[in-house]
Amino acid sequence: MFQTIYKIFFLFFITNIIYCQSVPAIQGSVFDEQNLPLELVSVAFLKQKDSTLINYTITDSNGYFSMTDVPKGNITVQISFMGFNTFKKNITYNSTPINLKTIILKESPSVLDAVTISAVVPVQVKKDTLAFNASSFKVNPDDNLESLLTKLPGLEIESDGKVVAQGNQVTRIFVDGKEFFGGDPALVLKNLSADAIEKVEIIDKKSEDAELTGVDDGNKEMIINFTLKKSKKNMGFGKFAAGMGLDSRYFSNLNYNKFNPKTQISLIGKFNNINITGSNIQGFLENANGIADEDDDDTNNTPKPRSLSGYLKTEVAGAHFGHEFKEKVDVNADYFYNLSDNQGASSSKRVSFTNANNFDFASEDTFNRLSKNHNFNFNYKHRANKNNRLIVRGKLNATENISNDTKNGTFTNSNGELTTTNQQNLHNNNTRNTANFNIDYYQKLQKNGRSFNTGFNTVLNSQKRENNQYTFTVRNLHKTTPTEREIETVRDEKFNNNNYNFNFRYTEPIVDKHYFKLQSFLRFKTEKEDIYQLKNTITDNEEELLTFKYKHLENSFQTRFAHNYVSPKLNIFSALELQDLSRNFGIITEPSITKHLFFLNPISNILYKPKKGHKYRLAYKKVIRNPRKHESSTVVNDLNPFYIRQGNPNLKAEKMNEIALTANVFNFKSSTTFYSRILYQHATDAIVQSIDIDDSFVRTRSYQNSGNRKVFTANFSLSKKLKGLGVRYTLKNKNAYRTSNSIINLELNDVTSKDFFVGLLLENSNKNVVDLKFGADYSVNNTNFSLEEDLNRTYRQQKYFSMFDYDLTSKLNINTQFDYIVFSDNQFSSNTTLPIWSAAFSYNLSKNKKNICKLLLIDLLNKNVDVYRRSTTNYFEETTSESLGRYVILSYTYKLNSKPKKQKRNNA
User: What is the CATH code of the structural domain delimited by 25-192?
Assistant: First the structure.
C-alpha cells in the first residue's frame, strides 16, 4: 500500500510539473519613464464586479510578468509600485492569450511609505515584507484572524496551531506594529475579528543587533503584522457570542478592543462546557486527539499530545494594555487567567515484554482534573536612539493543579492467565510559581560594524506537590493461595529551581565583509528538593518514614571565537566553542558528588540566498548534554509501588553531533512554497533507560550510558496552484529513522523505529463564494526490537477529510466538515474507525452584519472518541478515552461597534 500511494503522489507531482509548462494567459512588461525595467512590481488580477482578488504576480529583473491561471470573464489588471501611479486596465479573457506588451508607470508626486498599502492595492512586495490587502479576500462576518490567514497564499495553519509563512514558522504576531498578548499567535488569531483588518504584512524580520548595526547576521524570524482599518481606530470594537444547546451545553465568548496610535486596550473572556479551549466559533469544528500519560519513557522522547477527552469546562479572562510614550519607546503588559475542569474515563491495553517473560496489562481509569492558571507578561522596548537599544521582558506565572484518579488494572501472563489485579486511588495537589526576567542591551560603536550586546536572564521556580496514593494488590490469582497487599503513601515534595544566565557578544570588523565575533555565555542552575514520605503497608502493619533534602547545582561557561562572512547572498559563520561544565549534587547531609568536564565544540552555519524568496542553510554543531537531575539522582522514588524511579549518579555527559540542511523557497510570482529539511543526529555516551521488571510486574527505571543514538529525518512540503483549475494543492512528506538502545533486565535491547507520513490537501484558491477543502493523510510506524523480534510492531493511521463552506445567500452561510480516520496495528486484535461529521448554519439578522445567528451540529454521528497508540522501550499501548460526543447549540453573536460613527461637520 505504501509503495502504491507513493507512486500516485510521485506521478501527480511530475504530471503537474509538466502541465505547468503552458503558454501564459496574460503577459507584459513594466518600465518607468526612463525606459528602465521595474522589478518587484505588483501585478494583480481582480474581478471587475467586486474588485476581489483572483490572482497576483510580480515582475522579474527585466520587468516581465506572466500569469497562466486566469479564469474566463471580465478582469481588471492592476499594476502598483511604490512611488508610481497605479495602472489599471479592464480586459476580457476568453482563453485567447493576451499580451499587454510594455506598460509605462509614471512617478507619483506623493510617495507612499515602505509598508503602506492603499485600499486598491491587493498585494505589494517591499524588501523583506510581503503585504496583502485584507479586503481582497472573502471572510464570514464572525470569522477571526485564523480564518483570514488560511486564505492568503503562502500561509498555512498546521493541525497543532502553528502558523507557517513561506515555509517558516511564525514566532510572533503584532497588531499595528505592537505586541498583542505577548505576541502569542494562538491568542491573537483567536481573539481579533478578521473584518477589523486592513492589511496583513508577512515580515522576514532581522535580529535586533542586525537592525541596529546594518550588518546582517543571518538570524531572522518570521512575524506577521496586522494593520487595523481606520474605522476601527480611536473607537471600541469587538464581539459577544453566546449559545445554549441540548444536554445543558453552553458557551459564551467576549472580546473588546480599543486602539489608537498611542494606546491599545483589549479584553477577552470565555466560558463553556463543550471541550473548547479556543475563543472562536470556527474552533468548534476542530477535533483533538491523543491523551496524556504520566510515564516519561517514550522511546523517541517526543512530547505527549494533550487532548480534550472526557468533559471539559473552561473559564478564561484576559486583558492587554500597550502604550507608546514616544516614537519607538513603548510598553506592553497583559494578564491571562485560565481555569479548566476536566472529568472523564479511559481504558488502556498494554503489551509488555522482558527477556524473561511477556505479559499484558489492561486498565479502566476515571479522572477528575482541575487546573487554575494566572499568567502576567510585560515588556519595555526603547529603540529611539540610533546607536543603542534596550529591551526588558518579564513573565509571572502561578498555577494550581488538583487531580483525582482511580485506576483498576489487571496483569495477564504469556499463557493468558490472570495473575495480578491492582486498584489505585491517586490524589495530587500541585502548585507552581514562576518568575522570568530578561534584559538585553545592544550598542553600536563608532566604527562601522563594531558593536556589542549583553543580556541577563533569570528563571525562578518554586513548586509544591502533595501526593496521596492508595494501592490494593492481589497477586498470583491463578494459584490456590493468592496474596494481598495494601499500601497507603503520603509524599510531600518542595522544589526550588533557579536559573541565572549571562551573555556577552562583541563584533569587530576585520576587512570588507569579514567580522570577528567573541561570544560568552555563563549559566548557573540550582535545583533543590525537600521530600517527606510516609508509607504505611496496611497488610503488614508497617510504617516507613523517608525525609531528605537534595541539591543539584550545575554551572556552564561557554566562550566562542568566531569568524563571520557577510554578503547580500552568502553568510558564513564558523566558531570554536570552549565549554566548561561542572556539577555538584547529592543529599545535603551526605558528601556531595562533583563532576567537572571540559569540551571543544565546533559550530558552523552557512546561509545562501541566491535571490529573493530563496534561502538555503547548512548548519553543524556539537552539543553536550549533562544528565538531568532525575537521571542522576541518588534517591529512590517509590510513591507508585508498581513504577519505581531512581537515578544513576555515575552518568557521563551525552555528546551529540548534529547536521541540518534546510531549504525555503517562495516564488513571489506564483506564490509557490517549497520547504525541505534534512537532519542527522549522532549521540555518543547516550543516556538511555534501564528497565528492570520482576516477577510481580514491579517496574524499576534507571539510566545508563550505553552505545549510540542515531536520528535521521527528512521532511518536505510543497504548495502550488494547479493551473487553470483555481485549486491549490499542498503535498507533505515526513520520514524518520531512529536507532537507540535500552536495557531490559540487564540485557541490551536495540530499538529501531521507522516513520513515514504523506499528506495531500486540495483547496480552491479563489474563495469568494465557496470554500472547498479535501485531502488525505497516511502514516505508518515500524518499530523493531532485538530483544523480542516477534513483537515487532507496525502501526498505520489513515485520515480522509473534507470541508465545504458556501454562501447560499448574502445572509445565509453553511459550513460542514467530515473526517474519517482508520487506525490499524498488528499488535492489537481490533482495528478502529472513527467517522466525525459536524456542520454549522449561520444567518445574518441585519444588513450591517452586526447580528448573527448560528446553529452548530457537532459530531452528528456521535462517534467522537480519542484514540492514542504509542511504542516505548518495552511495551505498546493503546488508550481509548470517552469524549463529549454529539451536541447541538444555537448561538447568537453581536458585533460591537462594527460600523464607524458618523463625523459631525463643522459649519464655517
Answer: 2.60.40.10
